[in-house]
Amino acid sequence: MKDDDLKIQHRRRFLANAGATIAAGAVVPLVSKAAEVKAPRLARSKNTDFDVVVIGGGFAGLTSARDCAKRGLKTLLLEARTRIGGRTFVTHYQDHQVELGGTWIHWAQPYVWTEINRYGLTLAETPGASPNSFSWRTGNQTKNADGEKAFAMLTEAMNKYCDVDGQLGRTVYPRAPEPLFNIDGVRKYDAMTLTDRLKQINLRQDLSDLLAPQYTINVHRDPSTGSFAEQLHWWARGDFDISLLFDRCGHYKIAQGTSGLAQAIRNDGDFELKTGSPVKAVTQKGDLVTVSTDQASYTAAAVICAVPVNTLKNIRFEPGLNAAKQTASKVGVAGTGNKCYIHIKQKIGVWMGTAPHPYPITLAFTEQERDDGTLIVCFDAAGKLDVNDQAGVQAALRGLIPDAEVVSVISYPWTADPYSQGTWAFYHPGQLSGSWMGLRQQEGNIFFASSDSAELWRGFIDGAIESGVRTATEVFNSLSKKA
């Protein structure tokens, strides 16, 4: 499938990735003509086109390219798509900006918060992350409660689920930014699935069904495929508190959009950018690395590979990558569900709804209260929600909102996109303790940066920036030693 063939899924029409408009609105441009190519500089490294070639224009790649260029390295960034931003993508639904991919940030995420301050960006809020009313499916019925009561129940259930040590899991991750600090504890729970852990605790059915969507949305797939150690790491990121975790994962977003941050990083980096340039092969011979696309080949002293783990297998590396990278890319990391926005006629206020796997809607909450109804952001971890079938979406939503009348649905097929092949990273059992370090490992003059292998906020924009900052420093130090 070619990138241009991938379309944003909308009720009546499709939107090509780059620049076309729909009745609901227009895609926010992510690369200006002025920013497309920067003035070339002579490579410091001998007999190479560039000091550094970066593969992938998501936040990991953008950050590493910017930081390499700021250190005086002649840098080229190759992006397969016709836009930058990776697994983030901004568009508009009528008068409202929507994020079809990665969205939420928080000041407890240090790397992205540094960039927000650096570029003078501001915050907006998603109201449904702190709901006044709450609905959830349990058995064949829907229960309703006010938001405060529902979160009190959810706190009770999640605390019991994560309390493996009498300290809410703190001994497993005493240092959340160092995920393998207690390697023995991590290995113990990395062998366990999310559903394995649920079977160990005694919860009444309505509490179990209230709890299950919370870890299911994290894995964004069948929870029997997700590592319980990974869930405990998410839990540690929220300081072992479900309300704090919600606040950090789904409440605050960038008012200028993720595209605003992506463009700010790009404009601040004196590097050359080529979009529409999927990389086919990376070859190392001695101190020289050659990166090949269909159009051209480029030589460099170092390469930063900043593509999602799931897509590594689509690039031919010579010599081949280590076993951890090959296996992880073949198996993939877990996130393969859907995210969509649903406009309904009803005004439902500030609401949240959940349902356990395999219900086609795992989590939904108010994105915007409108004069003509409500815009809801919705996640389907089961991959069963056909966003092109408005009647099917309406039927699924009516399990949580009985009188819901769907006006429109907008989404993007991240799993079908060959340059993402999924959503955010959540590890399968054994991957954190067995593959994580290998995913980060330098191989000759090839370095690796990705949100999928970040230390703290793995699977988030913050994790992508963290990995880009780290990898750019590693590259600069490596090349400086050879100078």
Brief descriptors of the model:
single chain; 483 residues; alpha+beta; FAD/NAD(P)-binding domain; Polyamine Oxidase, Chain A, domain 2; 2 domains; 9-stranded mixed sheet; 8-stranded mixed sheet; 15 helices; 31% helix; globular; disordered N terminus
The CATH architecture designation of the largest domain is Alpha-Beta Complex
Poorly predicted ranges: 1-29, 32-37
Output the radius of gyration: 22 Å
Q: Which percent band covers the strand fraction?
A: 15-25%
Top-tier CATH class of the largest domain: Alpha Beta
Helix fraction? 25-40%
The count of DSSP E runs of length 2 or more, i.e. the number of strands, is 24
Main pleated-sheet profile = 9 strands, mixed
Q: Any idea what the shape is? A: globular
Strand order of the largest sheet: 2-1-23-19-22-21-20-11-12
**CATH domain topology of the largest domain:** Polyamine Oxidase, Chain A, domain 2
> What is the number of domains?
2
Structural class: alpha+beta
Global mean pLDDT: 93
The number of helical elements comes to 15
Q: In angstroms, what separates the terminal alpha carbons?
A: 42 Å
